[in-house]
Specification:
Blueprint (H helix, E strand, L loop, with lengths): L2 H11 L1 H7 L2 E8 L5 E7 L3 E8 L2 E8 L8 E2 H8 L17 H19 L1 H4 L6 H20 L8 H17 L1
Amino acid sequence: MDEYIFAEQTKKHFRYLIDDYEYSVTGQRYDPKAFGNSLVQFQSRTMDVTVALDRGQVFVYLAPRTESPGYQFDLRDIVGFLTPESDEPVYIFPEEWDNYYDMVDWQVKRLAQVFRKYCKPVLAGKFSKWKEIVKIREAKAQDKYKRLTGKEPITIDSEEIGSEVQKEIRRRQSQ
């Protein structure tokens, strides 16, 4: 994919982040050697949003800047948490499409609409249940591990590890 096409498509369809929620574009990257993979990053005071193109599939990731820093969440997990009654799939990856650029544009546009429709409290920085989502994600991972291996998973307190990592980062920055 051309370096600028994905970035321009993304900035066009996610423009409401800038206009309505005080986000800014903080980065964009394109790697022609890695299947043309690309990403565009948006940032607000409370949230980082990354829209990524990976081998023709578009994904959206969210990372809170204040609560649960260091964690990144897939849009599918956030929509599932906020609207468990919704049966609308978050990601739809078209198999056949005449024009690659149109296929990517369709995905970007659709995900921008899904994000805006279901994630208003997150967009506005008024969502405070990140730790609950982390616990749900960890429980799902443990269930999957047990199902695949037949063994009980070794568990650790991710909050404790997160705070230890933050302490180490602060220690290194102060040196």
